[in-house]
Amino acid sequence: MYAWIFRHLPGNTFWRVVQSLVLVAAVVTALFLWVFPVIAPYLELLGGDPAVG
Amino acid sequence: MGGVGEILITLGVVLGLFVVWQLWWTSVEATAQADKVLTEFRATLPPINPAAAELRTDDPPVPDPVGYGETIGTLVVPAWYGLTNNAMPIAEGTGMDVLDQAMAGHYETSQQVGDVGNFALAGHRRTHGNSFRHVDDLEKGDQIIVETAQTWYVYEVTDHEIVTPDQVDVVAPVPHHPDQKPTERLLTLTTCHSLTLGEYGNDHRWITYATFVGWMDRADGTPDQVR
After folding, report:
1. B117-122 and B151-163: which strand pairing?
2. Which of A26, A42, B37, B133 is the most buried (most CB within 10 A)?
3. Considering B126, B133, B185, B192, which one is annotated as catalytic?
């Protein structure tokens, strides 16, 4: 899957690496800003509600 | 490499990123928000009078209740200096929207600061600013100080206990005795605790009790441990 994406990026190896890093950064940003905040309430292992009741 | 392997590795990396997000990024966002609230709150206050002054032990002024999410004051725990953000805003309510901003949340059913009864606060142990992370460092006699627009309220830690999350009586006016009429002025901190994972779990609650020792008008001076 990743090899397929890498092969289909335009440009030489250097530019492909640069584009790959941009893609990775975009995915991590999306996870941090939108995905993780939404799923966090369902994974209350660490965060959890610290109130009683 | 097979597609299944790539998917498994991806899942592993995403799980790792989730832990990083929860333990680190939530605190970055939350403490920035708490600092903003603190700065805005302090901008409305008269400047601190840095003079030393005696703590008064007569009846302290009791502030009027505020609406949900509004700032009541600041929680200062000198034992946490250098460990976490030891001055954090206190806001009304214990909803996650309040606590996730690295603030201490005031149980709406509990009494006001300085009043006879229980001024009970909740805060995160880990994540979202690690508000009460070092609650287990507090020892008998350590001060917990609440700053409001007019007054410094000084409490001293008396005891702690570890309870299950359904033990709502710990924030009663007289903890564990919801039917009794209070005679003392207490402050209670509640936060997550785990019997097996310590600060990383939330199967139990760590409850720290403190009792009122005195107050000071902001115009008269500033308590020793805050100056």
Report:
1. unpaired
2. B133
3. B192
